[in-house]
Design brief:
3 domains, eight-stranded parallel beta barrel, 22 helices, glycoprotein, GP_PDE_dom
Amino acid sequence: MSRDGTYGGNAELAAISELYNVASIQKVTERKVLVLYNGELDNGHYDALFPINDHKHERNVEGNETSQDSEKDKRMRIQTLKKMIKDLIILVILLITFIYMTFYLYFWLVLDNYSDDFNWYFTVKFKLKYLPWYTMILCRIGIGSGYLAILVGLSIYRISMGHEVHIHPFHVVMIIINFLSCIGYTIALNTFWPSVWAMLKLSFQIVGPFIHVGLIVIFTILTWILIRQWYILDRFRLKLLTLVAYMAILVGLYVIPLFIESPCVRPADSLPSKPRLFAHRGASGIAPENTLVAFQLAANQSVYGFESDVRISLDGIPFILHDKTLRRTTNIEEVYPDRVDDDASTFTFDELRKLNAGSWFLEEDPMDVVGSLTDKTKEIYNNQTIMSLEELIDLANLTGKNIFIDVQIPVKENPYYHTAYKKAVDVILNTGILPKQIWWFSKVYHSAYTTNFTQTGTSYLPVEDLVKLHISNFNARYDSLSEDEILLFTFIFIVFRQYRESNITTNVYLVNSYWLFSLYWCLGVQSVTTDECHVLNKIEKPLWHLTPGTYLMTWVSVDIISAIIIITILIVQWVRLLGTRFNPETISLHSQQTMTILTDQYHSTSRPMKENLLFTAD
């Protein structure tokens, strides 16, 4: 370039044009403006490169460009706002669905205590083929929770990095499907099995302290992102509102233990003895229920006694069976195909003996144990028949076990409809077993012969009333407490303690899970009825047990460590972001647009600098 601001030749101009292939480059100085149109020269460089000294024309051009830029920025801001709101709505739905699904994952794990009953309930209720429905639903919820956790994690990561949160439409559809699934679970449980919600409330008594620690850890980790986003906010009121909400949640998490009453927090020397075990229908967790082999295996597990339901056959013989019909636990479809749904009390005992009571266990594998059985064990299981009450009592006499008997009334067509209890009592007395070995429900049948049985109540009554009724044992279903009683742990503790001090033992059924067994252990229950006697028999201590001092120290330590970390994060973020000016019009979850604006600003600044190097006259 020459000193007068013109080029020395076409070669030099062509080189510059090829190097800076842009729509337009303007240089405005006091003396001239040089314009290069996309490197294209018409009839020489004097046609493509020329001076413009008309300042009025210059102002008109700049005004038009400013107006166009203003309209463009306005459209961009509106578009950005719409996308921001859309992404925010999707993100909120994602978080709600994730929390909803995580809740159901926890709930379904808690429901493991009743998994077998759920499988059979689902099968019988909807007349389906037996399948491990509980496990299938658990896997479905687990996969859904994992999938949503990945989406939430990626969203949080992108927000923390200042990137846009763009959720693909496919994922949006999957989020909605998972959300609707959770709603479906809720409706189904409330409709068909509302009692299971009691299990959820009970679980908080044992896992509450762990939930407290987990929530504090998660909230502390998220603080890094939350504080950074808080700094970006430009409105004081919004900042204040966000800060108050954050502090309220944090303080609430810190004081949660004040509202957690767990029986496992107690002095070390006050931990009650391990509850004794009643084998529910025998060792039904590893053998066909209510068969001789099931009760024999239970006796080998050092159980305190057997529990079973007793029915009366058409010819007056008490036999062992839980269901009203024989469909579930026998091969009646093969032997009596026309009587599949008939009441079991319409069969004679000889007819009942012709049924196989063990093959179903090998075919259905309800407890998922068949794969671990030997061929000899499978052969034994396959040859089981329905047993009589007399056979069960003989086994109890031989092994020194107690028997928890629940006599079921037969259908009216049965000639022993009015004398069912008496028939059972007659068999018991004729076997010569000690009366105290028989646990008998006090409300069902009273006679001089049942007085010496272990009288058992089924509802919470004051100690004075139980004593008057000569009740020495109380039998309660795990979820028989009312909602208020479950939430009020003190009530349970006081009742069980009063019973214990008055020599009234307490038995709870059905207890299969380690956590539920630990809960009632710490509560001081003397015995539980279980399918899993082979598992609970090996447990030597509760799931966890802390003294009040240790628990308080753990709680306070976790809170203090969390507070220190949060304060450190606050200081670090304040130092990092101090002096940083955030433009509310350009800060959004859409980093691509934000980067476009910043890039345009960069080019608008850097381009004149390059032009100064190229076009500056001396």
